[in-house]
Write a structure and sequence with these properties.
426 residues; 6-stranded mixed beta sheet; alpha/beta; Rossmann fold
Length: 426
Amino acid sequence: MKRVLRCVRCKKEYQLNKQGYTCECGGLLEVKIKERADLTHLKNTWRNRRLSNKAIDQSGVWRYKEFVFDFNEEEIVTFPEGNTNLYELPENLLDVRKLFAKHEGENPTGSFKDRGMTVGISFAKKLGYKTVMCASTGNTSSSMAAYASRAGLKSIVFIPEGKIAYGKLSQTLAYGAKTIQIKGDFDDAMKAARNIAQDYKIYLLNSINPIRLEGQKTIVLQLLDQLNWEVPDWIVLPGGNLGNTSAFGKVLKELKEFGFIEKAPCLAVIQAENANPFYRAFKTSFKEFAPVKAETVATAIRIGNPVNYEKALKSIQFTHGVVEEVSDREILLSKMEIDSLGIGCEPASAASLAGAKKLREKGIIKQEDTVVLILTGNILKDPDTTINFHLGNIQGIPESLLNAPTLIKNRQDDIRKEIERILEEV
């Protein structure tokens, strides 16, 4: 299928290999599929590919290549990625008809970023780039470093000093990225990366890059496939740089246009209350937008000036969605609930459940609704937060929820007493 880059503001079109990521009018660019045919026959094609042992068919991204990019097999850099589970959760967790969690933390480097990075790195290699770059709070950098290493490309990362979880930083360093710490926050790192990429022949792989978002669309494609194309009422996801929000709205619009679905689910984007510029704009019906100085325990969404604001706004409007904010305490309590199910997630992921709870309490999410929560990252991305929670090092967490290890003497009587105490617990 033919594709072009199109400005979301003025609709001007460009070739896919355009230098830069914005239109001359200043608007953001997105990939536009130039096709008018009914494509619903692809449902069977995608399902049949599961039987193939080819890496590109095993990938939960490239299996849907007709909606991504129809690259030649040898052009694709894949692990493979995207084979993430859709878990049915207890309904009483939210008091709805059906509740699911799509766990993107099951990707190769532990976050949803792998879906976008397999596409972005493959495209960079196809265009002849030797170096790729990003600014990151952690997940983007670890994913980019891994895929760049697999592709034989050099990778450079800008990170905010002291504002990245060690689980993510360790991946970035181990996979070989040259890492530069900026004395500032993520938005400062993002500004530096954009300036450098513009001045040198370096391919920028943040979510402002519309090519990368084509991979992230497949989260929605796959979850609908897993639901046998029964469309849920709500998809609830964390909001940071708003790349997923943009990608989700885009693919839902495409699926409706090409006959896959009759009605799009509502998107609910959840932000941390001290990193909430999108929520504040939503409260003004998007008449006003102002960056904020972001601060939250959920490092993956600690972003005060999201580059995809313009696209994300359109996603909320198209899906008749909402934006909500939650406190760090609400995030951590919801994380504890998800963790206790044996699934586990990083703090930003738990914003989905925390926000869904708030929307359910307000009656925006109804009892008869089907809801899908997007969990964006693996629990091991930020082990320090999990440990500090259960050791009682975080204020405002009830002692009854803690699960700290018990220190006892190495004596049989003491060990037996502790075992008996555990067995007697209700």
